[in-house]
Structures are given as structure tokens and as C-alpha cells.
Design a protein that fits this description.
Shape: globular
Strand order of the largest sheet: 6-7-8-9-10-11-12
Largest sheet: 7 strands, mixed
Strand content: 15-25%
Oligomer: single chain
Radius of gyration: 17 Å
Order of helices and strands: EEHEHEHEEEEEEHEHE
Distance between the termini: 13 Å
Number of helices: 5
Length: 244
């Protein structure tokens, strides 16, 4: 867990969403939100990433692609490149931030997320649309040949959207923005009751909670999930290492 914070927080070290998945000597990154590049660079050579998967176009999930781009471009001669899979318009967003067409393409190979299952190095990646922005994704990641995987919710406003991705025994890494709940009308995020019901219905092996917004009690959030799901439930923090 490189970063597990929401868009803003008062928790020291709670940088934006960024989750590093490793298997077979390779690494895949789920999102790269604000302030998380240093944590990435301290744990893996960023240029060796198989890919970065971006869940949606809110800056707390992708803005540190900018320092990644700079690192790849300026630290190596010739510049190195990393593959990035994300929603339509991702490169344009970053280019517009710098008023420089082609800024992103200097070191990042950006392409659209594929809905079908695909192999990326040592990983098998499945993506599914979820309710949040016009184009938001959740991802299921497995190591090639493994039965159980990691399902990452991204930001999600309807827990049932995750059901097609989850298999029994999977680890569910899910946002719980509004803690014990309820979620305010129109806020397309999840709370403890929704996560607990999903985890029980999908028979997951473990629940890892992330993206808790400022002002919500962590223990109450965990308890709200445990009321509906009998398995292991933990709230993640940057630096946590978990085996799937």
C-alpha cells in the first residue's frame, strides 16, 4: 500500500491512492495519486513497472503520473517508457495541465482500458465499469495460474457493480469513503454496510478498506463491515504489505 488517502485528509502520510502489486519478479501499479511517487520510487525502480492501471480521472488517482513522466524522461538517456492503461482522455488531461500537447507521450504509453481479460507480464487483468464518473473502472488482478486474486474497487458508488469481478476467496481492496455511513445523496462512494453486504454475497476471503475520508472514525467503519461479513477486515495504511 503506497498511498491510501482520499482527495484530502488530515492524516499524516495519507497520500493519494496507489497500490503496488508484485508477482513473479514483476510489478503492476493500481492508480498513482497525489504524493505517492516517492513511495513508489523507494520500493521499486519505476521504469520497470509492467503497467500503471488508472481507475478514473480524478486527480487523487492519477496526478503523480506527472512526476513519473518527469522521472522517466529526465533520469535516463534515452528516456524510458511505461505503459499506462486508463479511461479515455487521460493523456489529454495531463497535457492540458501543462498546456503542452505531447507532454504525456514523451515517456508514457497511454492506452484505453480493455474490458476483456488480458495478460500483462506475470499478471492477468480484468476490468469492469463501476458507477462513479462517466468512465470509472474496478480491476481484478491475478498472478498467472493463480486461482485467487485481488479486486480493487477504485472509487465506486454502487457495490453491486463489483460482483461480476469478484470470485470466492478473492481479496477485496475497496474504498470506504463514508465510513460507517450513510453515504450522502449524490455522493457516488461506498460505506461500511454496502461493503459488508458485498463481501458476504461474494464470499471474499478478506477485505482491505481504503480511501476513508477525513472526519470518519476508522473503528466504526471496520465495525460496520464486520456486522455483515464474518471474515477478516482491515483498514490499510501506507507501507502495509499484504499477501494475496
Amino acid at each position: 500500500m503506497l498511498g491510501a488517502g482520499p482527495a484530502y485528509t488530515d492524516r499524516p502520510g495519507a497520500t493519494g491512492a496507489a497500490y503496488l502489486v508484485r508477482a513473479g519478479g514483476e510489478a503492476l501499479l493500481l492508480d498513482l495519486g497525489q504524493g505517492s511517487f516517492p513511495a513508489l520510487a523507494s520500493r521499486v525502480e519505476p521504469s520497470t513497472l509492467r503497467a500503471v492501471l488508472v481507475s478514473h480521472l480524478h486527480p487523487d488517482h492519477f496526478i503523480d503520473l506527472v512526476p513519473l513522466r518527469h522521472y522517466l524522461f529526465y533520469e535516463f538517456s534515452p528516456p524510458r517508457r511505461v505503459r499506462v492503461l486508463g479511461p479515455a482522455g487521460l493523456a489529454d488531461r495531463i497535457d492540458a495541465l501543462h498546456a503542452e500537447p505531447g507532454f504525456t507521450a514523451a515517456s508514457l504509453d497511454v492506452e484505453a482500458v480493455a474490458r476483456a481479460s488480458q495478460a500483462i507480464g506475470a499478471f492477468v487483468v480484468e476490468a469492469g465499469l463501476v458507477t462513479h464518473t462517466d468512465e470509472s473502472y474496478a480491476f481484478r488482478i491475478t498472478a498467472s495460474g493463480d486461482e485467487h486474486g485481488l479486486v480493487y474497487s477504485g472509487d465506486c458508488g454502487r457495490a453491486a457493480d463489483l460482483l461480476p469481478l469478484v470470485r470466492p476467496g478473492d481479496t477485496l481492496l475497496t474504498e470506504i469513503s463514508f465510513g460507517a455511513g450513510p453515504v450522502p445523496p449524490g455522493a457516488l462512494h461506498l460505506d461500511g454496510p454496502a461493503v459488508g453486504e458485498l463481501a458476504a454475497a461474494a464470499h471474499v476471503g478478506r477485505v482491505l478498506l481504503t480511501h476513508l475520508q477525513m472526519g470518519f472514525d476508522p473503528e466504526a467503519a471496520i465495525a460496520a463491515v464486520r456486522e455483515r461479513f464474518a471474515g477478516a477486515v482491515d483498514l490499510v495504511a501506507p507501507g502495509l504489505i499484504s499477501e494475496v
